[in-house]
Amino acid sequence: MREFPDSNGFFCNVGPDGESRSRYGGRYVAETLMPLIGEIEAAYDAARDDPEFNAELAALQRDYVGRATPLYFAERLTEHFGGARLYLKREDLNHTGAHKINNALGQALLARRMGRNRLIAETGAGMHGVAVATVAARLGMRCTVYMGATDIERQQPNVQRMRLLGAEVIAVTSGTATLKDAMNEALRAWVAGVDDTFYVIGTVAGPAPYPRMVRDFQSTIGREAREQILAQTGRLPTALIACVGGGSNAMGLFHPFLADAVEMIGVEAGGEGLDSGRHAASLNGGSPGILHGNRTYLLQDDDGQILDAHSISAGLDYPGIGPEHAWLHDSGRARYVTAKDDEALAAVALCCRLEGILPALESAHALAEAGRQAASRPPTQSLIVCLSGRGDKDMKTIIDHLVSEENRA
Amino acid sequence: MIPTVSDTEIQTDSRLARCFERCRAQQRGALVTYVMAGDPDLDTSRALLEQLPAAGADIIELGMPFSDPMADGVAIQRAGQRALKGGQTLARTLDLVRDFRRQDDRTPLVLMGYLNPLVRYGERRFLEAAAEAGIDGLILVDLPYEHGATLTAQARDLGLARIPLVAPTTPGERLPALLAQGDGFVYRIAFNGVTGSRALDLDHADALERQVIALRRHRALPVAIGFGVRDAGSASGAARIADAVVVGSALVERLADEGVDAALALTRELAKAVREARS
After folding, report:
1. Would you call B183 helix, strand, or coil by DSSP?
2. Which CATH superfamily does the domain covering B7-276 fall into?
3. Smallest Cβ distance to B194: which of A192, A290, A303?
4. CA A258 to CA A253: how far, in whole Å?
5. Name one Pfam family in it (chain B) (predicted).
6. Residue ranges of chain B with pLDDT lower than 50?
7. From B198, which residue of chain A is nearest by alpha-carbon distance?
8. Which residue of A225, B18, B64, B243 has the lowest C-beta tally within 10 Å?
9. Which is nearest to B166 in space by CA: B122, B217, B126, B125?
10. ipTM for the complex?
11. Pick the catalytic residue: B39, B58, B72, B136?
């Protein structure tokens, strides 16, 4: 099998004639950034092969982040659905409460190695922002986080937390004032700060080498899960299930299993339903285009203008998706389905009651699909679900919705 | 030896080439004015466009509005949002070009913007429509030369210049390949940042001038300086160094704040500064 991305940062589906059928990724950025992106790629490739870099990353992952995270057999959820066995990869138990720190730590160490002491980041739900602010504090670096004004409103605890950690949080009011606009603003700040700034992109998107680099830093999820399931059951799982916005937790879980006979299911945010037009399902409801430095599936209109995404979870509220997912989707290697806002909310409640675990609204999309999959499969099968983050940050949204539901009843 | 494109590939008989030839004969720089297509609405945009050449614009850059202009500052972001709100599309931008061409067959018109609307329209189909409508060149902010070979070849076939952007960060080793895909003129970005975010730093004009001279050594194309040209002083400073001066955000702001006549007044002021810069 050919290794992707290729040297131009493309993930290609090649036909039997050797011709490329579709390709995703690339480096579609302004000329000002092109030389720096090349430097980052070279520095990353050198760091990857450097035992010292890897030893420092591994030590911090163990002692600071708290890895390895458990692979937990969810006995009562399994019993509830009465089918396949459900295993939860507990990324919610990481320091800062989500998988985001795996990548933030890796990129911050790379930035320091490159002599860049100012980190910038975009954030939606705030989990990536908190992770970057945290590692910036730990490594003694300056940090600015760009966050949509709409998201600042719905994720207040994370905003306060980033400020407490010493980061500057900048409210982005342009466009729809959500994650995509935060990313636009971070890219603008990067162009202006190209001399000293490192942009820590939080998902498997953006110009090459980011999709590959973020995937590699997140692949620790899948590597651990693979070892853990083999140790616990003696076999590989039947399927992997993870939510996808940009898709970093899913890519991290999927990638180490790509060569295995294991199904992969990505769950997009269905919002109020695909037919409503209010969703964030780029693969199920979008088409290929170019945004934020890469070619991928996007929510867009007939004129190529990017459309607003909608999801109850701020972390999935993005009109694009990482290019490697677009590639896996087209090739059929992974399957992408949707879970709606209300299904995610129901999954939060169920997981709380049966397992005593409060999942993030993002992760709850994966749990909603996991329930459907488990119920339709025999107990001889096992499913690994990425519980990508914890739901403390979502308490206000969850309570508001559950209360309004009770009022309706 | 620096690889360059042979002279036969360079488009000599084009509106852009003739425009730079006229300016050279008059021993002056060219004024390039950027306006956003459809800002704030189609009629205003058409009226401004038609009057720009008489006010002293030698070349017109027409912005193609995009929902996510990641290399633009606030002024051009807002202009794009106003245009989109008014229903501007790529097809309507080409209509605007056709209208303009009916009364002006001389002023070069260059489209500037982002790749996605073109991809959606169909790149080949778009280039054909643009050439047919009377467009002379294209500036695509998010298409680095690494991904641009196919589009450049198609554009050349149709007589469209793909105007390359060169940044302060662009190292010498990128220039041969970058400029080999270029036609028309080279757009030298004056500083690291988004459009309109700073004023041109005339204290360091010597360094910029050396870089412009280095650019011309790589490829015999006119060089335009853009980003940060806000007034007569900066226009004059840039015109002493380069073959052309681009004004964008300042003009777009003037239009938004004070209307078409004020935008034309600024154009006249800048045209005067550019014309007198070398005398």
Report:
1. coil
2. Aldolase class I (3.20.20.70)
3. A192
4. 10
5. Trp_syntA
6. 1-9
7. A192
8. B18
9. B217
10. 0.94
11. B72
